[in-house]
Amino acid sequence: MANSSIVGDIKTKVISEIIQDEDLFRAINSPTISSFEASDKLVNTHIFRFDQNPDVVEKTITFITLQVHIPRSYSDNTFVKAQLEIFIISHVDCMKVNNIPKIIDNRNDYISRLLDNKFNGRTYLGTEDDPNKLQLYGSLDLVRNTEGAYRKYYLYRQMVFETKDVNDSLCDGGKYGG
């Protein structure tokens, strides 16, 4: 099986960029976190490094989940395909973007547009002032952007970005052995 150490790294860098983006902070529109200076509090309340079940969410909110998948290696087995899957999930009562003037998109579509503009085509993850930027072997390309209903009161937009990473199973003495 192909493997990669990029799984946790992508999640960490993407979350870091999301919580440092004031437009995304405002688009999430937390009912409990009103100050952008406290945007790090969105992690594990509105932004999750794992799939989150809306049935266990007790508030009428919007939240984002991130998963990273390594579905296969490329034909030469040197690189693996890495997929970043982002779910934007909103309670139906949160779909109208009534906290930002002139936005006519629904909340999930608007957040999706911001994420698309921020990440699509990038060759690194991490902000400009991040000395430990994650350099990607290929660009991070949006390959899927779909919407649907998730349970009775929640709607979602699913975004899938693809990039590639070195197949760690080929690295002798690497992180996963070889």
Provide structural commentary.
The radius of gyration is 17 Å and the shape is globular. With 178 residues, the chain is an alpha+beta fold. The chain has one domain (6-170): STM4215-like. It is 19% helix and 34% strand.
Intertermini distance: 12 Å
Gross CATH architecture:
2-Layer Sandwich
**For this structure, what is the CATH class?**
Alpha Beta
Q: Give start-end ranges of low-pLDDT stretches.
A: 172-178
Structural class: alpha+beta
Main sheet: strand order: 1-2-3-6-5-4
Q: Helicity, in percent?
A: 10-25%
CATH topology title:
STM4215-like
List the domain count as a whole number: 1
What proportion of the residues form beta strands (DSSP E)? Answer: 25-35%
What layout of secondary structure does this protein have?
Elements lengths: L5 H14 L2 H7 L18 E2 L13 E12 L5 E13 L15 H13 L2 E4 L8 E17 L3 E13 L12
Parallel strand pairs: 1-2
Antiparallel strand pairs: 2-3, 3-6, 4-5, 5-6
Helix pairs in contact: 2-3
